[in-house]
Amino acid sequence: MQKYRKYNGRFLKFFCLCATILTAAPTLAHGEETQIEQDRRRLGNSGPLIEQIDPATVRDSQRAAEAAEAEKKGDDTPDMSDHLLGNMWGARDWMAKHGISFDIQEVDELWGNTTGGTASGADGASGSGTGPAYDGVTMPTLTVDLEKLIGLKGGTFNVSALQLRGRSISQDHLANFNPVSGFEADRSTRLFELWYQQSFLDGKLDVKIGQQDLDTEFLVSDYGALYLNSNFGWPMAPSVNLYAGGPSWPLSSPAIRIRYRPSDKFTFMFAAADDNPPGNRNNSFGIQNGGNSADPTNQNTNDEDGANFNMGTGALLITELQYALNPQPDDMSHVTKDPGLPGIYKLGGYYDTAKFPDYRYNNQGKALGSAADTTGIPRWDRGNWMVYGIIDQMIWRPSLQSPQSVGIFARATGNGGDRNMISFAIDAGINLKAPFKGRDNDTIGLGWGIGRASSGQRRYDRNSGAPVQGNENHLELTYQAQVMPWWVMQPDFQYVWHPSGGVTDWTGNRLVGNEAIFGLHSNITF
Fold first, then answer.
1. CATH architecture type of domain 2-85+93-525
2. What is the pTM of this model?
3. Secondary structure class of 166 (helix, strand, coil)
4. Cα dist from 171 to 163, 185, 356, 460, 517, whole Å
5. Which of the listed residues 76, 148, 354, 516 has the most CB atoms within 10 Å of its CB?
6. pLDDT digit string (tens) for 104-120?
């Protein structure tokens, strides 16, 4: 463990030194773009108005929409009509002049399962897997453009917090591999992100250092981000295979992220982060004597306030290469020559240097879960990896200036099966932007996904006499509607076949049934 502390400390010191040396480099117009803003622009603003991965992507996609509208109008003055509190009696205008922005995202959801599911431990024998549930999150964010504030070109500072409430219907009643909502989280009030970003080389290179959530930049399908099921955001494999899901909503880790954009077509990203935000290791997975029954997701263990800043476990190294096909001009309103239908293609992968419990063997080399297993303690295996590919492609639009378009997406992940619960997963879908006249910011979509239990998990099931897990399939039909400039509503329907690939309910005698889930999602920007 001391070795990893020493390694991570030297790693961050090295890049902090690099950032100090290059601080004076100037930036260009796109130098301050978030990854979501860049993708939105390259896709010609054909993605959903709000990307529903987590509150951070909601915030960034809202800002991207504002930037696109300002570009269209040729006006740099911030338009606060899409904020419920407007310019806050002049306070936001004053802050904008000094490079300061303050946003509050409010997300509230109602969910109900009408069939299948399982009772939670608190329900007892009289409980049911059906019924309603509520979850909500409030996220305030302060962002500072240091060039406007103190003249430091290319410098950006960001800090955000979370107030989480309600119950997770997935954790309590659905027994799925991944939650049906990317906004479900354990109740807490916590620090979320705290980072500094510096741009170099006329905006072609930027470096971000600090407490970060990686799922706003890596593994993102911009069309897939319309959907509420968390599998379409931070996908199934890293969510269940990494410690506490890795540095992803609602957790973040000390990290350094490097992004290089030699042209508008190519983007290269790399990040090194602590792999285990809360630092819990000995009972983080179900394979470890049932896991952490008091905190199954390990979101609050050791780190309920988000200020643990764990640096004592392994390092998660993740990289991604992006290619933009036919990136769209900044302003399509005056374009006469067809630039072609846009698309973004991504290849990436990660390697985690930590040790992980083996699903096949115990610490004595015997088959885990078998009659010969007298300890029930898995063997530790060094390292873990995953590779992935993502496609976002527009396939139709009636005219260059029309807000209407059809886009498709697909994402596949794959990894080893000896130390992971999921070995393969794929998501895909089709979106229609501006489905009705006068509803330019609305999007309707139909998405599907599948996750496959790993060979190690299936072997453990056979050894222990449990039902052998296979594939879980999920289907989602959703409609994102901009009710007011500051308010987005999203009715949602999902159907899940074979939750967790086939596991027993609270009785231990029958499998959890297929689930038909209805939801209503609300997002307000204050």
1. Beta Barrel (2.40)
2. 0.90
3. strand
4. 19, 9, 23, 22, 14
5. 354
6. 999 999 999 999 998 87
